Amino acid sequence: MTYELGIIGAGNMAEAIARGVLRAGLFLPAQIIASDAAAQRREFFTAELHIPATADNAQVARQSKVILLSVKPQQMAGALAALGPASNPETLFISIAAGISCAFIERHLGGDTNWRIVRAMPNTPMLVGEGMVGIARGAHATDSDLAHARNIFESAATVIEVEEEKIDAVTALSGSGPAYFFYLVEQMIAAGAALGLTHEQSRQLATRTAVGSARMLATSPDSPQELRRKVTSPGGTTEAAITSMETAGVGPAIVEAIKAAQRRGTELGT
């Protein structure tokens, strides 16, 4: 049997992508196969998503037209060594592993094949149909390959194309970005509790404020700076908070944090 999509590594991000394509009707569960070393993840994909799952990566490679590489970067070399001999030279590989270059994938798949590879960096809001994905083509990927990858991710995300050298920056900004956002909301909830609100009150206030603000940012023609200015009355409470953040160096700290994420992505590929 031939599957339209084979997933190597059935983790959380692979789940988000699988849910996206299923929700959009791009593929049926029977058109996808997944592999994972963990029995729990295989059972989850089979029971919850109705996607057949196996522990045999080579089986997925032999039977799939497109292979989504979603193993951890540290495990990629070993996974690829087993996939290369089992894969059809016409197979399209889409990798979402942070820091792993297309050249690395080609080298470890082995042989004299001009492997067709698209590198991508999605984020977990794909789980709710609000993801962001950057994609970049490898040396032998065609326009059709790039369109195929875009089609998969657009089932639950907005997709932009970048040069491969920019993918680590995409990883740092949007791939890791949801964690920065959650961290801010986490601190807002803690602040509300410190000011005497209950945890549930603080969580509701912070979460709904974040949701509403994100919607304004996505739909308003105004820049983030202008939206912030409109909320910040001179001499008011918001100005006091922003002044405190600026005095503490919060802005530069965020920029440096994202740069640190980018550096780590580069390190993972060496």
- Arithmetic mean pLDDT: 95
DSSP strand tally: 8
Q: So what's the CATH class of the largest domain?
A: Alpha Beta
| C-alpha end-to-end distance | 37 Å
CATH architecture of the largest domain: 3-Layer(aba) Sandwich
Q: Tell me the fraction of residues in β-strands, as a range.
A: 5-15%
Q: What would you call the structural class?
A: alpha/beta
Main beta sheet: 8 strands, mixed
Strand order within the widest beta sheet: 3-2-1-4-5-6-7-8
Number of domains: 2
Written as H for each helix and E for each strand, in order along the chain, the element string is EHEHEHEHEHEEHEHHHHHH
Unreliable segments of 5+ consecutive residues = none
| CA-based shape | elongated
Can you tell me the CATH superfamily of the largest domain?
NAD(P)-binding Rossmann-like Domain
| Overall radius of gyration | 21 Å
CATH topology of the largest domain: Rossmann fold
Total helix count?
12
Overview of this protein structure:
By secondary structure, the chain is an alpha/beta fold. It folds into two domains: 165 residues, Rossmann fold (3-Layer(aba) Sandwich); 92 residues, ProC C-terminal domain-like (ProC C-terminal domain-like fold, Orthogonal Bundle), CATH 1.10.3730. Helices cover 53% and strands 15% of the residues. Strands 3-2-1-4-5-6-7-8 form an eight-stranded mixed beta sheet, sandwiched between helices. Helix 7 crosses helix 12 and helix 8 crosses helix 9.
